[in-house]
Records
---
Amino acid sequence: MRWLKIFVALLIMCSAGCIQKSSEYTQSFQNITVSEAYKLIQNNTNLIIIDVRGCKCTYNKEHIPNAIWDTYPEDFYGTKKDLLIYSQVDSTSMDFCKKLVGHVYGKIYNLKGGIDAWKAAGYQIES
């Protein structure tokens, strides 16, 4: 009987630890403007910029400086870095962000207007 009580106590402690750990995951993402994204890029050394446009050829043609191209959200599961996501179409980047929620520890940002808004604002593009 004593062993059963110890087992139950350990089980409860383990469950509490698991619940605590999962609550550390980011539970939402934030839509930000181009000017907010620019400031974020300038000031956040813990940031990964991700181009999620469907074809790598569009990335190769032009992208935000220091961005990487990746269309698989699971590649970032467990990351502790902040993520800035952009696409050509807001729905694509928002879907990507939604798939990251609950799976990463860092903050998740969606660039409203995507690369077109970035270019319209006159910010630098790499090719």
---
Amino acid sequence: MTQTSSAVPDERRTAQPELERRVMRKVTRRLIPFLIALYFVNYLDRTNIGFAGPNGMNEELGLTATMFGLASGIFFVGYLLLEVPSNLALHRFGGRRWLARIIFSWGLVAALMAFVPSATWLYVLRFLLGVAEAGFFPGIILYLTYWFPKRSRAKATALFLLAIPLSTVVGAPLSAWLIETGDTFIPGMSGWRFMFLVEGIPAMLLGVACWFYLTDRPHQASWLDDEERAWLTSEMDHEASQTSQRYHYPLRRALVQPRIWALAFVYFGTVYGLYTMSFFLPTIIDGFSQTFQTDYSVMQVGLITAIPFAFAAVAMVLWSRHGDRTGERVWHVALPLFLGGVTIPVALYLNSPFTTMVAVTITCVCICSALPTFWPLPTMFLSGAAAAGGIALINTVGNASGFFAPYITGWLKDLTGTQNAGMWVIGIIMVAAGFAVLALRAAPEPDDAGAEETDRMRS
């Protein structure tokens, strides 16, 4: 993919460097911690089933590995069906109101999972959880394009995506503790049910807070002074205008662009590894007891699960900063995918828990490093409604791996009796995604075709 003009001198970029630094500091401090909190709770609520499964839920509801994979993945069926319309609604109605609706509704469904009586009802609520969450992640990615110029967007995205590793670093021990102590707080309630109930409540509270805290657009930001507000509004309007003039993509054309679908495949390969790790890593570590004759408690499994994501949290920030500083995007996505795609199957052939976890940690670091440097790619040539629809489409197709990854991994485990085949599939898909993003780098600029199409549509 041809690089953006970030490496080209821009008078707007250098005219008021101190003002830009001041505004970006204020915007970052105002928005990013709150958005991290939202995504932390979001990711925890969609993946905590990974802890519930091996800690009583599978046994109580009679779930096989395939059934557990289906329960984990069916979330994404409802999620994907409504991604694009939800993101278009956010673009139309504003992030504050639409995100508040999403957050409160998913928290309610997440808490209700504490009361599922059977596998069927687990499937139903996981599906509804996906429906409730639809549009949240691409909505935040779109929301960041309203506040952060392209030259600083990878860093802002990386800070927001810190919620992914943090939700495991903090959430795994927290989930383990809630499971172990649930009966103490509510006698007779299974620990995994207590975990679902407690971890659903923060989302409802944050949904209410979102309504009052977020600001839709820079020109509405009362927390910036007049000069700061004017500069940021002008900067973002100028950037959006440049993008739309260069590529001329209306929404309908954006959704059928081969480049969009290729990026969707790259994202599919990246999050395929992420969701397999998120849903099955506690089960894999629990399985060390048979492979290496270990004896870990629920809390110990939670703490070990957190280790790879702790390293990943540091790496993703450093890697994204390097991407912003150099202006290079493609290799910053491809290299982590290649390395992570190799290390995950290698972990299968190591002979101790320590060396296995080293390989798993490298894989997690690579996956989390690729994510924030990926998301600036679509907004190189999309803006406005086309960006809303295009980002949502990429997230929709990419997150289809959230269904396929746990289901295929669980099915292969039931079929073969080991996790090996599932880990090989992860590696192959990640490497294929790395080659796909390199192929995009060599693709020609699409602006001429876009301009011709726009002219035809206008005439």
